[in-house]
């Protein structure tokens, strides 16, 4: 697990630099920097709007005495998308939009649900183990 995380922390910034350098060569430094800033601002606005929307849905579900399971999953995915926005670069910004936009977030939720259902069918209850390394 540590090796995979280490590879991600090295590979993602490396790929981000390659994309930024190549885009800078193609459209120029100013436009590249503007694209990064504009995507960051748009992403932050979407994250804020979607986060507040999910909070209102959670509040509504709780006020009706219901467990807001779907809204909590949406909240986690929005949090992941927002965290990806913090990482500078175009690849992570584009990936963050998949977590922030409701239509693509539904696809991610469906994929997660299918994987969890498959795990439950094949292994029984899903158990999460945390190790101290």
Question: Helix coverage percent of residues?
Answer: over 70%
Please report which band the strand proportion falls in: under 5%, 5-15%, 15-25%, 25-35%, 35-45% or over 45%. Answer: under 5%
Enumerate how many helices there are, as a single number: 5
Q: Kindly report the average pLDDT value.
A: 86
Structural class: mainly alpha
The low-confidence runs, each spanning 5 or more residues with pLDDT under 50, are none
What value does the Rg take, in angstroms? 18 Å
**β-strand number:** 0
Shape: globular
Q: How would a textbook summarize the main sheet? A: none
SSE string: HHHHH
Brief write-up:
With 133 residues, the protein is mainly α. It contains five helices and no strands.
């Amino acid at each position: 697990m540590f090796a995979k995380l280490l590879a991600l922390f090295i590979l993602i910034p490396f790929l981000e630099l390659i994309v930024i350098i190549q885009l800078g060569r193609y459209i120029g430094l100013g436009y590249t920097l503007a694209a990064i800033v504009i995507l960051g601002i748009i992403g932050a606005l979407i994250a804020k709007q979607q986060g507040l929307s999910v909070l209102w849905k959670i509040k509504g579900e709780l006020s009706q005495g219901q467990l807001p399971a779907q809204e909590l999953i949406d909240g986690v995915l929005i949090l992941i998308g927002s965290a990806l926005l913090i990482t500078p670069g175009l690849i992570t910004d584009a990936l963050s939009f998949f977590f922030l936009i409701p239509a693509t977030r539904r696809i991610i939720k469906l994929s997660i649900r299918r994987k969890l259902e498959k795990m439950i069918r094949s292994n029984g209850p899903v158990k999460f183990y945390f190790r101290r390394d």
